[in-house]
Write a structure and sequence with these properties.
Blueprint lengths: L8 H16 L4 H15 L6 E6 L13 E5 L8 E11 L3 E18 L14 E7 L18 E2 L14 E2 L9 E8 L2 E9 L8 E6 L4 E6 L5 E4 L1
Parallel strand pairs: 8-12
Antiparallel strand pairs: 1-4, 2-3, 3-4, 4-5, 6-7, 8-9, 9-10, 10-11, 11-12
């Protein structure tokens, strides 16, 4: 005859409560969303106009363990405006990563053609107009400053009402081939700077290749101050 042993009441209570405790031990959505929102606000602080940041929600029924150290980042090559995904990683106590959908609207004035513009034409004040809207919904090279367009030669025909882009115009070079330039690189959670030499001519917003002092060649975007921005 097998002996029967009575389990301690405390053990029975712990066994019954364990599933309920596990269900409660998940990451609250609010801190994750707040970190993403604050990160995007900081990333877009220098943009013109009024910036509006909206972040999607984290599923309240997620199975992620609670985190005490959260940090946000952008996937490589992602600009911090328009429709995007922002990454949130847990550093401690357990490592995990989630991505939240986000939308960053940049409400400001940008340039449009006030009338049809012919190839080779020099842009005058009457050829352009300002339109207010979401700059993030426009091409990356959309112009916002009339002084950048007036006096420039037009490369291609521009229809009335179309957004005026830097690549439509022959703009003065921000970087010349052979010029020494400062390269500013950024990635998830870091920013670095380096020195190099431009391998091609580029106006603001155009692509430029730079040979760094260590011999490495990187691709970046020319800025109006002569620096080159690289995203890792």
């Amino acid at each position: 005859m097998k002996a029967r042993f009575a389990l301690p009441a405390l053990f029975i209570a712990a066994t019954v409560l364990l599933p309920a405790w596990s269900a409660l031990a998940r990451q609250p959505p609010e801190p994750v969303e707040d970190v993403a929102r604050s990160f995007l606000a900081a990333e877009t602080a220098g943009l013109p106009g009024q910036v509006e940041v909206s972040v999607g929600t984290l599923d309240a029924a997620n199975q992620l363990p609670p985190c005490t150290a959260l940090e946000a980042f952008l996937p490589s090559g992602t600009r911090a405006w328009g429709q995007l995904s922002v990454g949130i990683r847990c550093v401690a106590p357990a490592a995990w990563t989630v991505y939240l959908p986000a939308r960053v609207a940049v409400m400001t004035d940008f340039l449009v053609a006030a009338r049809p513009i012919r190839p080779g034409q020099i842009v005058g004040p009457d050829d352009i107009a300002l339109r207010h809207g979401d700059l993030a919904a426009q091409p990356a090279t959309a112009l916002t400053d009339p002084s950048r367009a007036i006096g420039a030669h037009v490369r291609i025909a521009v229809a009335e009402g179309n957004t005026l882009r830097a690549d439509m115009l022959r703009l003065p070079p921000a970087v010349r081939a052979g010029q020494s330039v400062r390269v500013i690189g950024s990635g998830p959670g870091f920013t670095v700077s380096n020195e190099g030499r431009a391998l091609n001519r580029a106006a603001e917003g155009e692509a430029v290749r730079v040979r760094l002092n260590n011999g490495q060649v990187v691709d970046g975007t020319a800025r109006s101050d002569g620096t080159v921005e690289v995203r890792f």
